[in-house]
Structures are given as structure tokens and as C-alpha cells.
Write a structure and sequence with these properties.
Blueprint (H helix, E strand, L loop, with lengths): L2 E5 L8 E5 L2 E12 L4 E10 L10 E9 L10 E9 L5 E5 L4 E7 L4 E7 L7 E7 L5 E10 L2 E16 L7 H4 L11 H22 L1
Antiparallel strand pairs: 1-3, 2-3, 3-4, 5-6, 5-12, 6-7, 7-8, 8-9, 9-10, 10-11, 11-12
């Protein structure tokens, strides 16, 4: 019997992975088709050491932020989207759903990611969303802010999911897997499913507001 293998998903933006001991394991979906006409989908593992700027070029993320001065309640979470692009001059530009702009960076050796958000004219200061890169599809960290009249300090926390390529292929819930902040609890399955449903709804809303 002859086995024909079709590589279905090859780009990192289209496949699910998890991190173990600083090594990312990529689960690549392949389609195995026998000459009898039957086919099946299988996952094969690929490993790479670190993520680089290339893994974030032209991507869109849904990001939720809870500021420290607000009640710890889901209704207090400010949810929007941010697009990470690169200009012709090679500058990494962040475009936020509310029309604000900023910059994004990836420090490869330390696997540290950050996005800035400038206020209008700079009069109200600047905020930076930053954190360690521990997952290909999910990011989280703290928000630091400062203004002309206040020093830099931690002002909130954030979580984000990869939505896909700007004006391109979208990442499915199946490809993402369960968010790492749900994977540790006993009830992570149900909570994770509910959260993913909300995220997909939010993605549609973000597209509508685009």
C-alpha cells in the first residue's frame, strides 16, 4: 500500500504549539492519504528554540487589559485589537483598535515582547504592554505607564491571543488550543471553551469595528 503525505499546515501562524523547557514544540497537521481513497489527519512534532520578530510580522491580536484602578471583574476588562506591522523603513509599528499607534519589539535572547501605545501629542504619557514569550498563540504580562507628571509604574495587567494574519488567514480555536491561564485548573476545559467562545465573538466584533 502506497502512502501519500500532504503537508496541510506549514506556517507557524497556522499551527499549534506549546513550550517546554524553553523549547517550542510545533504540532504540524499533515494529511495522510492512502491510494484506497481513505485519508486521515495526524499531528507531527517539530521543535525550535525561540520566537523571533518574523513570527509576529503582520499579525493581529485580541488583547484584554485590566487596570489596577478598576474592580477585579470581567466587566472591567478593556478589550480591543492591535495589529503588528513593519513599515518600509523597517520600523515595527503597532496600530490599536482605538486608532492609537505605537511600536512593538521582540528581544530574542530573553524572549521578551512589548507593545507601546502613545497618547495624543504625548500629553497624557505612554503605556507599554510587556511580558515573557511563553506561548506562540497566547501572550500575557503587565502594563507600565508614565506621564509628564508621574513616574513609571505598573498600572495593570493584560492577556492576548493571536487572531491571525492581517487581512489574511485566521487562527481557529482548535489550532490555538486551551489558553495557558486555563490549562492548570481542574475546570479548565469548560472555562477554556467558554473563554474561547467569547474570544471568537470578540474577534468578529473587532473586525466589524475595523
Amino acid at each position: 500500500m502506497q502512502l501519500v503525505v500532504h503537508f496541510q499546515l506549514r506556517t507557524k501562524a497556522s499551527i499549534h504549539q506549546h513550550i517546554t523547557l524553553q523549547k517550542y514544540t510545533i504540532l504540524t497537521l499533515i494529511k495522510c492519504e492512502f491510494i484506497t481513497g481513505d485519508d486521515e489527519l495526524e499531528w507531527v512534532e517539530e521543535e525550535f528554540e525561540t520566537l523571533t520578530e518574523r513570527d509576529f510580522y503582520n499579525t493581529e491580536w485580541k488583547i484584554g487589559t485590566l487596570m489596577d484602578n478598576k474592580p477585579r471583574d470581567p466587566k472591567s476588562i478593556d478589550t480591543t485589537w492591535v495589529r503588528l506591522t513593519t513599515t518600509e523603513q523597517g520600523e515595527n509599528k503597532a496600530t490599536w483598535g482605538d486608532g492609537s499607534s505605537g511600536k512593538w519589539t521582540v528581544d530574542v535572547p530573553s524572549q521578551y515582547f512589548s507593545i507601546s501605545k502613545e497618547s495624543f501629542g504625548g500629553w497624557f504619557g505612554k503605556k507599554i504592554w510587556a511580558g515573557n514569550i511563553d506561548d506562540f498563540y497566547y501572550l500575557e504580562g503587565t502594563v507600565r505607564g508614565w506621564s509628564p507628571i508621574s513616574p513609571a509604574s505598573v498600572v495593570g495587567q493584560w492577556q492576548a491571543i493571536r487572531l491571525g494574519v492581517v487581512d489574511g488567514e485566521r487562527v481557529t480555536v482548535e489550532e490555538r488550543g486551551v489558553a495557558p491561564w486555563f490549562s492548570g485548573g481542574e475546570s479548565s476545559g469548560e472555562d477554556g471553551d467558554a473563554q474561547e467562545t467569547n474570544l471568537e465573538t470578540g474577534e468578529a466584533e473587532a473586525d466589524d469595528n475595523n
